[in-house]
Amino acid sequence: MSRKRILIVEDEPSLVFTLRDTLENEGYEVAIVESGNDAIAKVPEFQPDLMLLDIMLPGMSGFEVCKKVREMKLNFPIIMLTARDQEIDKVTGLNIGADDYMTKPFGVKELLARIQARLRRVNTYSKPGPIDVVNLGEVRVQLNESKVVRPDKEIELTTREVELIRFLVANSNEPVSRDTLLEHVWRYEYSTNTRTVDVHISKLRSKIEMHPDDPRYLVTLHGVGYMMKMP
Ligand code: CA
Known about the structure:
Layout lengths: L4 E5 L3 H13 L3 E5 L2 H11 L3 E5 L7 H10 L6 E5 L4 H9 L4 E4 L4 H17 L8 E4 L2 E4 L4 E3 L4 E3 L2 H12 L7 H7 L9 H15 L9 E4 L3 E4 L3
Parallel strand pairs: 1-2, 1-3, 3-4, 4-5
Antiparallel strand pairs: 6-7, 7-8, 8-9, 10-11
The structure holds calcium ion (CA).
Calcium ion binds next to loops.
């Protein structure tokens, strides 16, 4: 089993020392950079499995780093670290694609638990791949063109619907909970909840299913969530 790589982006020497020590003791391979620009430069070379990202950095802020990483279409988990205990930071961080958030000072044990949880989730759920077309019986979903071609009509898909289909197809024939969809498709955006998921699924069903009331592919698993049934 190869060691998981963690990139620490932090400019506070004492915290860097503790983090490096703790993570290396746990068997992680660790790299450290002290600014946002260095972080962006280091990512392609080090290929981290996870990033610990301070918000208050010299030059580019942690928020900007996070945004840039996601713009590079890199999906490894990012846990943001900040000294400021402000809800606004949390919301901003999660909106721009961070996965978790820790307020300094934090306990090392809690940090390790969060890191492990994040890395486990990455292994558990398949990342949506670059699929262009999904055939669901007589319905053809063209993800690359954000549209559904049916015998009776063509329908546009929203960006969110495309993401939702990609995730469900990548995990087809497996139950996917509403919380998982919130986490992976909505990334816990502000003011979303499981009802948001239900509304989108229902809308999506009316587009991709010929008989949305009796779906063949995007089925509900009562008490569990949803599943994309694929041949
Ligand atoms: Ca700092």
